[in-house]
Amino acid sequence: MKTMLRASFVWRLVTTQAAVAALVFGLFASISFAEGYAYDLAGELMSPYCPGRTLSSCPSPQAAELVQWISIQEAAGASQDEVVEQLIERFGEEILGAPPAEGITLWAYIFPVAGFLGGGGIAAFVLRRMVGRRDDDDSQTRPDNQHSSVGDAAASAAKASPSEANAGSDTDDELARLVDAELAGRR
Length: 187
Description:
Layout: H1 2-32, H2 38-44, H3 61-75, H4 80-91, H5 107-141, H6 150-159, H7 162-167, H8 169-186
């Protein structure tokens, strides 16, 4: 009886501690990940102070000030789109890092896809013609009265009537001749 009470007490203690730990972890996780768009935006936008780097990776103090300005704008309630528009007005389209998918810059997105599809189509066309040409060459080089391989000769010998199969030596001689011809062709 005492062991059952102890087990029940231990079970309640463990579940209570697990619930408290989950609550505390959830609270800290929501606090640590409560960041808004400011740091994500700093990782996406190109730095006007360090060519080829994002704002978050630029060691320049001006870039750090710009990241701080974005955070202040976020805290003031400005939307991400408004902040991006202000930055574009101030630094130009280059801050976006990728051209917008509109107007003439749409071709920057269309050309790679079209090139991939066109190249794949050309490769398929060329390969299909090469395989077709090889099959045509093989059929043109073989006379109609000879078998293309030893397997074909064996198949035709198996289809022969029993009286023809008893002839034996003629079929064996023909098969040996075909094997010799095929081996000579491989050398």
